[in-house]
Amino acid sequence: MNTIENIDKDKLPQHLAIIMDGNGRWAKQKGKMRVFGHEHGAKAVKKIVESCVKIGVPYLTLYAFSTENWNRPKFEVDTLMKLLATQLKKELNTFLDNNVRFNTIGNIDSLPKKAFKEITEVTNKTSGNTGLTLTLALSYGAREELVNAVKNISVKVKNNIISSENIDEIIINNHLYTHNIPDVDLLIRTSGEHRISNFLLWQIAYAELYFTNVLWPDFNEQQLVEAILNYQNRERRFGKTSEQLN
Ligand code: IPE
Ligand code: IPE
Ligand code: MG
User: How many domains does the chain contain in total?
Assistant: First the structure.
């Protein structure tokens, strides 16, 4: 069995992103309601954050709620939002103890007041931390993020702050929610689905993708280690030939 000791510290993914999927199916398999799966999904989040701290991953981004997830039944959405608020309150000390800097990406203005308040509080109280940067994608959609970036750049062009000829990848990147986070190196999706579901479309341009059938509430440190070891055995060529890399 592989453990954290098997990981090559010099080849860590700088930015790990995870599509945490399968809470509903996990609950269904146990004859429970979907929200039971979300509660256990939250426990998996805590454990994976702690594992990332131990491993030394600098950036972890978790897809927690998509712009499309607003279309789920009202009861499920309401429960998820309540769970978000209570978990944040509960985990503030975990973040402080582990030097975790918390922030969010997405349209957080659209979240219920209580959740918004907890997000602001946890973000502010952990802003001075220098360890793992934990980013929760909430009411996040990559297309919305890009639309938002185009709008903001357009306003700057109109006001002569940016000239249209100078628009480049750096400028676009600087107008994304993730402007202060490096590109994704490793993207994990649990639950056996092989899709991106509107997550970080720009930022995963050269990410390594890793899919596992494990449902999110069952995803643990052991499986995270396997994913990172698998990543470390890949050759990232970025368009070059294998020979050029050596
Ligand atoms: C992921 O689990 C959590 C959210 C999208 C909020 P799901 O709720 O999508 O679980 P499945 O995919 O229905 O099993
Ligand atoms: C993606 O999961 C969103 C999150 C994990 C938050 P979904 O369960 O919403 O994705 P689809 O609908 O199966 O693509
Ligand atoms: Mg799902």
Answer: 1
